[in-house]
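Q: My labmate handed me this sequence with no annotations at all. I'd like to see what the chain might look like in three dimensions before we decide whether it's worth expressing. Could you predict it?
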Amino acid sequence: MSASVEPLISDQATAVWRRALPRSNGAADSRPTGKESKRVAYVLVDLLLIIVNAAVVFSSRFLFNFVELSRKTPYVNVFHPALIGQIGFMAVYAVLLLLTMQSEGMYRSAKLRSVLEDSFAVTRSVLLATLLLTAVIYLSGVNTVSRILFVFTATADWATLILWRWWFRGVVERRVQRGEGSRNTLIVGAGELGQTIAQYLEEHKDLGYVVKGCLDSNQDTANRWLGKIEDFPQIARAHFIDEVLIVASLDRETISKVVWNARQQRIDVKIVPDLLLGLGRRTRWDYVGNVPVIEVHKEPIPTFALVLKRVFDIIISTIALIFTGAVMAACAVAIRLDTPGPILYRSWRVGKKGKRFTCYKFRTMVEDAEGLKENLAHLNEREGILFKISNDPRLTRVGKTLRKYSLDELPQFWNVLKGDMSLVGPRPPVVSEYEQYSLEHLRRMDVTPGITGLWQVSARRDPSFEKYVALDLEYIENWNVWLDLRIALQTVPAVLKGTGR
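A: Here is what I predict for the chain of 501 residues:
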């Protein structure tokens, strides 16, 4: 390789990596890139639409009231508390909606979507933001907020956020078809990966790329083939190429010649690393800190469903703590009068990913119950590392009643509210049990533990520890919101029947 070409390769590589890395905080790099400006523009347009929708919906409600009031009095109080409250909650809703759309990847240009995917993402965002706002209104205790106005506003947001994206995508596609604002692209490499990239760019015209064809020295019969790599200077000039994508596995000297000629003609160059070859079309770039990496596989995370599960946990646990307050007070008094000792039983449990937390229950046993456990080992009715006795002599008189109707577990709603537990999930093991787990058993710790679960409603009296684990793993593998709802509904009759021990 010639000495004059080598520095150009280094300079080009440096430029590519600088464009890939996020901007630093220095003054020289403080101006936003084109992609960053586009993301900011998307956020601003969404915010403007949300504000306009709210203004139209709210003005249609309050304008009539203002006209009626102006007939009776010359002064109309535009700072009425009810109106201020509506505006405040609408501002909260706007923030929630933008955040949920951000969580759906609506403002990340690296996560490209089809029209249908865009519509589903907006729908999920609006539903989640509306549910979260409903929870905020309920927990705040404000009764002057008009729910129907927020329903109309959410519907208007859903429609306009989808429609403007459809419209903008159509505008871009029409401009590309007319040759306005598009980039003529040449792909070096006519193999499978080159054809896949070309097809993708042709199907997503809103990206602004017009694929002129492919170059390859060994693929003269391939689709879109324009010539050999050696003919790059002439072909690039003839087709007015703006950008080159090198996707073939080429030697360093060939790449250096392509880059050299591209720079001479002021053509942008991007290189797909050899590591991407054969990894599939779903492979994409991601970042670890400031370092760009190749994402070979990403396990899908049901973000929307998990957030919905957490919202329900917060709402239901809050309601449960409020409405069972009198019952818990009666339980506390009964425990205090029955036997000496603390009212609450605090024990270390192991939760999601092995995190330890304090689990709260009403005390149902005599003091020093753990110390008496060794003397009762021969009465254990469970297999493996579990320990359970039907008529446990350590239970107090009140404790037996609390256990029978699962009243001893009411304080665990506080664990749910804190986030240590969920309403539905595998039961959290005590530390001594957790320390005896095998690697296979640890899989049940991949999710947040719950007050009730699949084992509690289907095999509560089964003594097998392996069955216990198998049901938890079945729950984890097949989890969805509807499964949680079914388990929760099945738990109610089980509790009322007094099957607890």
